[in-house]
């Protein structure tokens, strides 16, 4: 079971939370690789062979960053995303900074690609994850407290992918 995490990260917060998700995925017995589209070449073969794809973005102007939108819209075209399990997460500065809008922008695009989208869910109890996990950047206490939620999200996402697609 391979799961890919594709994110854009300029100052490191989104990339760090991608690392927490990857840890959760691995705890569930699946494989995870992270690609920061700002610095890394995305391994097309890995994405093609992955059953799940999680997209991460900083919140800019209460939205996902344009680089993520472009990656999904243009660069992912040859990657056969249809039918994969998809999810999204965001980091932001303000509690009211638009991170939910950023996540929903991405989930909408993944639906257009024909993917199955998954939030991590509220029905498993705490932590309740509404649309996808969110961390506020390092300026406040919330940042380190968020790490466990991102790991739980990774575990839930991998468990759902294993349930749907097997090993
Ligand atoms: C140009 C710009 C626009 C931003 N707009 C928002 C915003 O609308 N809402 C918000 O809460 N934070 C905003 N931020 C803060 C970032 O979302 C936050 O610091 C994020 O964690 C950065 O991610 P990174 O460290 O992975 O690059 C903005 C930052 C920049 C540089």
Written overview of the protein:
This protein is α/β, with parallel strands linked by helices. The protein has a single domain, classed as Flavodoxin domain (Rossmann fold, 3-Layer(aba) Sandwich). Helices cover 41% and strands 22% of the residues. Strands 1, 2, 3, 4, 5, 6 and 7 form a seven-stranded mixed β-sheet that branches. A hairpin with a 2-residue loop joins strand 3 and strand 4 (63-64). Helix 1 (13-27) packs across helix 5 and helix 3 packs parallel to helix 4 (99-112). The protein starts with a strand and ends with a helix. The relative contact order is 0.21. The structure holds flavin mononucleotide. Flavin mononucleotide binds next to helix 1, strand 3 and strand 5.
